[in-house]
Protein backbone atom coordinates (compact mmCIF):
# COMPACT_ATOMS: atom_id res chain seq x y z
CA UNK A 1 0.00 0.00 0.00
CA UNK A 2 2.84 2.40 0.92
CA UNK A 3 4.47 1.71 -2.45
CA UNK A 4 1.25 2.55 -4.29
CA UNK A 5 0.93 5.79 -2.31
CA UNK A 6 4.45 6.83 -3.21
CA UNK A 7 3.75 6.20 -6.89
CA UNK A 8 0.91 8.74 -6.98
CA UNK A 9 2.02 11.76 -8.97
CA UNK A 10 0.96 15.32 -8.22
CA UNK A 11 -0.03 17.86 -10.88
CA UNK A 12 2.46 20.31 -9.30
CA UNK A 13 6.23 20.39 -9.88
CA UNK A 14 8.34 19.34 -6.88
CA UNK A 15 9.33 22.83 -5.66
CA UNK A 16 5.75 24.10 -5.82
CA UNK A 17 4.46 20.92 -4.19
CA UNK A 18 6.78 21.51 -1.25
CA UNK A 19 5.66 25.12 -0.84
CA UNK A 20 1.95 24.25 -1.04
CA UNK A 21 2.34 21.42 1.48
CA UNK A 22 4.16 23.80 3.85
CA UNK A 23 1.38 26.41 3.60
CA UNK A 24 -1.35 23.86 4.30
CA UNK A 25 0.53 22.21 7.18
CA UNK A 26 2.28 25.06 8.98
CA UNK A 27 -0.14 27.92 8.33
CA UNK A 28 -3.58 26.38 7.75
CA UNK A 29 -2.96 23.57 10.25
CA UNK A 30 -4.25 20.69 8.12
CA UNK A 31 -3.39 17.08 8.83
CA UNK A 32 -0.96 15.25 6.58
CA UNK A 33 -3.80 12.96 5.51
CA UNK A 34 -5.92 15.92 4.38
CA UNK A 35 -2.93 17.43 2.54
CA UNK A 36 -2.40 14.16 0.69
CA UNK A 37 -6.01 14.36 -0.55
CA UNK A 38 -5.69 18.02 -1.66
CA UNK A 39 -2.37 17.60 -3.45
CA UNK A 40 -3.08 14.16 -4.86
CA UNK A 41 -0.08 12.42 -3.33
CA UNK A 42 0.41 9.70 -0.76
CA UNK A 43 0.67 10.38 2.97
CA UNK A 44 4.21 9.05 3.10
CA UNK A 45 5.25 11.52 0.42
CA UNK A 46 3.58 14.36 2.35
CA UNK A 47 5.61 13.45 5.43
CA UNK A 48 8.79 13.24 3.36
CA UNK A 49 8.41 16.62 1.61
CA UNK A 50 7.49 18.38 4.89
CA UNK A 51 10.64 16.98 6.46
CA UNK A 52 12.62 18.13 3.43
CA UNK A 53 11.04 21.60 3.68
CA UNK A 54 12.36 21.94 7.23
CA UNK A 55 15.80 20.56 6.40
CA UNK A 56 16.23 22.77 3.31
CA UNK A 57 15.10 25.93 5.08
CA UNK A 58 11.89 26.39 3.09
CA UNK A 59 10.20 26.81 6.48
CA UNK A 60 11.94 29.30 8.79
CA UNK A 61 9.00 30.67 10.79
CA UNK A 62 7.93 31.83 7.32
CA UNK A 63 7.58 29.99 4.04
CA UNK A 64 10.44 31.15 1.82
CA UNK A 65 9.63 29.40 -1.45
CA UNK A 66 6.90 30.69 -3.74
CA UNK A 67 4.14 28.83 -5.53
CA UNK A 68 4.58 29.24 -9.29
CA UNK A 69 0.91 29.86 -10.08
CA UNK A 70 0.71 32.43 -7.27
CA UNK A 71 3.73 34.28 -8.68
CA UNK A 72 2.04 34.41 -12.08
CA UNK A 73 -1.12 35.80 -10.50
CA UNK A 74 0.94 38.41 -8.67
CA UNK A 75 2.44 39.68 -11.92
CA UNK A 76 -0.98 39.81 -13.59
CA UNK A 77 -2.50 41.73 -10.67
CA UNK A 78 0.34 44.27 -10.72
CA UNK A 79 -0.21 44.91 -14.41
CA UNK A 80 -4.02 45.01 -14.25
CA UNK A 81 -4.34 47.29 -11.22
CA UNK A 82 -1.11 49.31 -11.33
CA UNK A 83 0.20 47.88 -8.07
CA UNK A 84 3.78 48.27 -6.92
CA UNK A 85 3.59 44.82 -5.34
CA UNK A 86 1.18 41.89 -4.99
CA UNK A 87 1.40 38.88 -2.70
CA UNK A 88 -0.82 35.88 -3.47
CA UNK A 89 -1.00 32.87 -1.16
CA UNK A 90 -2.46 29.45 -2.02
CA UNK A 91 -6.21 29.05 -1.55
CA UNK A 92 -7.15 27.55 1.80
CA UNK A 93 -8.56 24.03 1.68
CA UNK A 94 -11.23 25.25 4.11
CA UNK A 95 -12.46 28.65 2.91
CA UNK A 96 -12.97 29.81 6.49
CA UNK A 97 -9.17 29.63 6.88
CA UNK A 98 -8.53 32.23 4.13
CA UNK A 99 -8.07 35.10 6.63
CA UNK A 100 -5.48 33.01 8.49
CA UNK A 101 -3.48 32.28 5.33
CA UNK A 102 -3.61 35.86 4.06
CA UNK A 103 -2.91 37.25 7.53
CA UNK A 104 0.25 35.14 7.77
CA UNK A 105 1.52 36.59 4.48
CA UNK A 106 0.60 40.12 5.58
CA UNK A 107 2.55 39.68 8.82
CA UNK A 108 5.63 38.63 6.85
CA UNK A 109 5.25 41.60 4.50
CA UNK A 110 4.82 44.11 7.33
CA UNK A 111 7.76 42.67 9.27
CA UNK A 112 9.95 43.27 6.22
CA UNK A 113 8.58 46.68 5.21
CA UNK A 114 7.83 48.73 8.33
CA UNK A 115 10.82 50.98 8.98
CA UNK A 116 12.14 53.51 11.48
CA UNK A 117 9.94 56.60 11.64
CA UNK A 118 6.93 55.15 9.80
CA UNK A 119 3.45 56.38 10.66
CA UNK A 120 0.96 53.56 10.07
CA UNK A 121 -2.77 54.22 9.76
CA UNK A 122 -4.71 51.02 10.54
CA UNK A 123 -8.14 49.77 9.52
CA UNK A 124 -9.77 46.68 10.94
CA UNK A 125 -11.03 43.21 10.12
CA UNK A 126 -10.55 39.52 10.79
CA UNK A 127 -7.65 39.18 8.33
CA UNK A 128 -5.80 42.14 9.88
CA UNK A 129 -6.34 40.60 13.32
CA UNK A 130 -4.56 37.43 12.16
CA UNK A 131 -1.80 39.51 10.58
CA UNK A 132 -1.12 41.40 13.80
CA UNK A 133 -1.19 38.18 15.83
CA UNK A 134 1.46 36.64 13.53
CA UNK A 135 3.62 39.77 13.46
CA UNK A 136 6.94 39.16 15.25
CA UNK A 137 7.61 41.33 18.29
CA UNK A 138 10.41 43.69 17.21
CA UNK A 139 10.70 47.31 18.38
CA UNK A 140 11.11 49.78 15.51
CA UNK A 141 12.22 53.24 16.62
CA UNK A 142 10.07 56.35 16.24
CA UNK A 143 7.07 54.52 14.74
CA UNK A 144 3.45 55.50 15.25
CA UNK A 145 0.22 53.53 14.81
CA UNK A 146 -3.05 55.44 14.36
CA UNK A 147 -6.48 53.81 14.30
CA UNK A 148 -8.62 55.02 11.41
CA UNK A 149 -11.91 53.99 13.04
CA UNK A 150 -13.80 54.54 16.24
CA UNK A 151 -14.16 51.61 18.62
CA UNK A 152 -16.86 49.17 19.64
CA UNK A 153 -18.60 49.93 22.92
CA UNK A 154 -19.47 46.24 23.43
CA UNK A 155 -16.32 44.11 23.74
CA UNK A 156 -15.91 41.84 20.71
CA UNK A 157 -13.13 39.57 19.37
CA UNK A 158 -12.50 42.18 16.66
CA UNK A 159 -12.18 45.80 17.70
CA UNK A 160 -10.41 48.56 15.76
CA UNK A 161 -8.95 50.07 18.91
CA UNK A 162 -7.60 46.77 20.22
CA UNK A 163 -6.05 45.94 16.84
CA UNK A 164 -4.22 49.27 16.75
CA UNK A 165 -2.99 48.86 20.31
CA UNK A 166 -1.78 45.30 19.69
CA UNK A 167 0.03 46.36 16.50
CA UNK A 168 1.71 49.23 18.35
CA UNK A 169 2.82 46.89 21.12
CA UNK A 170 4.41 44.50 18.64
CA UNK A 171 6.65 47.20 17.12
CA UNK A 172 7.09 49.44 20.16
CA UNK A 173 5.18 52.32 18.55
CA UNK A 174 3.20 55.22 19.91
CA UNK A 175 -0.51 54.54 19.51
CA UNK A 176 -3.38 56.93 18.89
CA UNK A 177 -7.05 55.88 18.98
CA UNK A 178 -10.27 57.56 17.90
CA UNK A 179 -12.21 58.01 21.20
CA UNK A 180 -15.64 57.64 19.58
CA UNK A 181 -17.94 54.76 18.51
CA UNK A 182 -17.67 53.35 14.99
CA UNK A 183 -21.20 54.51 14.22
CA UNK A 184 -23.10 57.37 15.82
CA UNK A 185 -26.85 57.04 16.24
CA UNK A 186 -27.55 60.05 14.03
CA UNK A 187 -25.57 62.05 11.43
CA UNK A 188 -25.61 65.17 13.61
CA UNK A 189 -24.12 63.17 16.50
CA UNK A 190 -21.41 61.93 14.17
CA UNK A 191 -20.60 65.52 13.21
CA UNK A 192 -20.38 66.47 16.89
CA UNK A 193 -18.11 63.52 17.70
CA UNK A 194 -15.77 64.18 14.79
CA UNK A 195 -15.49 67.91 15.56
CA UNK A 196 -14.03 67.29 19.03
CA UNK A 197 -10.46 68.48 19.37
CA UNK A 198 -9.17 65.10 20.59
CA UNK A 199 -10.71 63.38 17.58
CA UNK A 200 -9.39 65.96 15.14
CA UNK A 201 -5.91 65.45 16.61
CA UNK A 202 -6.04 61.72 15.81
CA UNK A 203 -7.37 62.34 12.28
CA UNK A 204 -4.56 64.88 11.77
CA UNK A 205 -1.99 62.24 12.79
CA UNK A 206 -3.58 59.73 10.39
CA UNK A 207 -3.26 62.30 7.59
CA UNK A 208 0.49 62.30 8.22
CA UNK A 209 0.71 58.52 7.74
CA UNK A 210 3.02 57.19 5.06
CA UNK A 211 1.46 53.70 5.25
CA UNK A 212 -2.17 52.61 5.56
CA UNK A 213 -3.05 48.96 6.21
CA UNK A 214 -6.66 48.19 5.31
CA UNK A 215 -9.10 45.37 4.73
CA UNK A 216 -12.57 45.35 3.21
CA UNK A 217 -15.86 43.79 4.27
CA UNK A 218 -18.48 41.94 2.24
CA UNK A 219 -22.17 41.26 2.84
CA UNK A 220 -21.51 37.62 3.73
CA UNK A 221 -23.36 36.22 6.75
CA UNK A 222 -20.18 35.83 8.81
CA UNK A 223 -18.80 39.32 8.20
CA UNK A 224 -18.16 41.25 11.45
CA UNK A 225 -20.09 44.30 10.32
CA UNK A 226 -23.20 42.16 9.80
CA UNK A 227 -22.81 40.27 13.07
CA UNK A 228 -21.89 42.95 15.60
CA UNK A 229 -25.29 44.61 15.65
CA UNK A 230 -24.42 48.26 15.03
CA UNK A 231 -26.19 48.14 11.68
CA UNK A 232 -29.73 46.82 11.47
CA UNK A 233 -30.50 43.97 9.03
CA UNK A 234 -32.98 46.28 7.31
CA UNK A 235 -30.23 48.87 6.80
CA UNK A 236 -27.93 46.25 5.26
CA UNK A 237 -30.73 45.35 2.84
CA UNK A 238 -31.22 49.03 1.98
CA UNK A 239 -27.50 49.48 1.38
CA UNK A 240 -27.42 46.53 -1.01
CA UNK A 241 -30.51 47.86 -2.79
CA UNK A 242 -28.70 51.20 -3.16
CA UNK A 243 -25.85 49.42 -4.95
CA UNK A 244 -23.36 48.79 -2.14
CA UNK A 245 -21.03 45.82 -2.65
CA UNK A 246 -19.33 46.03 0.77
CA UNK A 247 -17.43 48.43 2.98
CA UNK A 248 -14.01 49.98 3.42
CA UNK A 249 -13.35 51.64 6.77
CA UNK A 250 -17.06 50.99 7.48
CA UNK A 251 -18.09 53.24 4.58
CA UNK A 252 -20.30 51.32 2.14
CA UNK A 253 -19.29 51.74 -1.50
CA UNK A 254 -20.70 50.73 -4.87
CA UNK A 255 -19.00 48.73 -7.63
CA UNK A 256 -17.15 51.86 -8.82
CA UNK A 257 -15.75 52.51 -5.36
CA UNK A 258 -18.03 55.47 -4.63
CA UNK A 259 -19.87 55.89 -1.28
CA UNK A 260 -23.56 55.06 -1.63
CA UNK A 261 -26.11 57.67 -0.64
CA UNK A 262 -27.44 56.27 2.64
CA UNK A 263 -27.71 57.55 6.20
CA UNK A 264 -25.41 54.78 7.48
CA UNK A 265 -22.51 56.40 5.61
CA UNK A 266 -23.33 59.72 7.27
CA UNK A 267 -23.03 58.12 10.72
CA UNK A 268 -19.52 56.64 10.33
CA UNK A 269 -16.86 57.90 12.72
CA UNK A 270 -13.76 57.15 10.69
CA UNK A 271 -11.01 58.59 8.54
CA UNK A 272 -12.55 60.46 5.58
CA UNK A 273 -12.87 58.09 2.64
CA UNK A 274 -12.25 60.87 0.10
CA UNK A 275 -8.81 61.49 1.65
CA UNK A 276 -7.69 57.87 1.65
CA UNK A 277 -5.73 58.05 -1.60
CA UNK A 278 -3.64 60.92 -0.16
CA UNK A 279 -1.73 58.34 1.91
CA UNK A 280 1.25 57.37 -0.27
CA UNK A 281 1.42 53.62 0.47
CA UNK A 282 -1.85 51.77 0.93
CA UNK A 283 -1.71 48.04 1.66
CA UNK A 284 -4.95 46.12 1.08
CA UNK A 285 -5.10 42.82 2.96
CA UNK A 286 -8.15 40.74 2.04
CA UNK A 287 -9.27 37.68 0.09
CA UNK A 288 -11.73 34.87 -0.51
CA UNK A 289 -14.25 34.56 -3.33
CA UNK A 290 -16.89 36.48 -1.39
CA UNK A 291 -14.62 39.55 -1.26
CA UNK A 292 -13.97 39.89 -5.01
CA UNK A 293 -16.67 42.52 -5.67
CA UNK A 294 -15.69 44.79 -2.78
CA UNK A 295 -11.96 44.35 -3.48
CA UNK A 296 -12.49 45.31 -7.13
CA UNK A 297 -14.46 48.36 -6.00
CA UNK A 298 -11.71 49.42 -3.60
CA UNK A 299 -9.06 48.98 -6.30
CA UNK A 300 -11.17 51.05 -8.72
CA UNK A 301 -11.30 54.22 -6.64
CA UNK A 302 -8.42 54.03 -4.16
CA UNK A 303 -4.73 54.17 -5.01
CA UNK A 304 -3.75 50.78 -3.60
CA UNK A 305 0.02 50.20 -3.65
CA UNK A 306 0.21 46.65 -2.34
CA UNK A 307 -2.37 43.86 -2.47
CA UNK A 308 -2.04 40.80 -0.22
CA UNK A 309 -4.64 38.17 -1.06
CA UNK A 310 -5.24 34.53 -2.00
CA UNK A 311 -5.62 32.58 -5.25
CA UNK A 312 -9.43 32.58 -5.14
CA UNK A 313 -9.70 36.39 -4.93
CA UNK A 314 -6.81 36.93 -7.34
CA UNK A 315 -8.48 34.79 -10.02
CA UNK A 316 -11.77 36.56 -9.44
CA UNK A 317 -10.15 39.98 -9.78
CA UNK A 318 -8.56 38.85 -13.03
CA UNK A 319 -11.75 37.29 -14.39
CA UNK A 320 -10.36 33.77 -14.45
TrEMBL record:
It comes from the Bacteria. Belongs to the SorC transcriptional regulatory family. Residues 67-318 form the Sugar-binding domain. The keyword Ion transport does not apply. Keywords: DNA-binding, Transcription, Transcription regulation. InterPro entries: NagB/RpiA_transferase-like, SorC_transcr_regulators, Sugar-bd_dom_put, WH-like_DNA-bd_sf. This is DeoR family transcriptional regulator. GO terms for molecular function: carbohydrate binding; DNA binding.
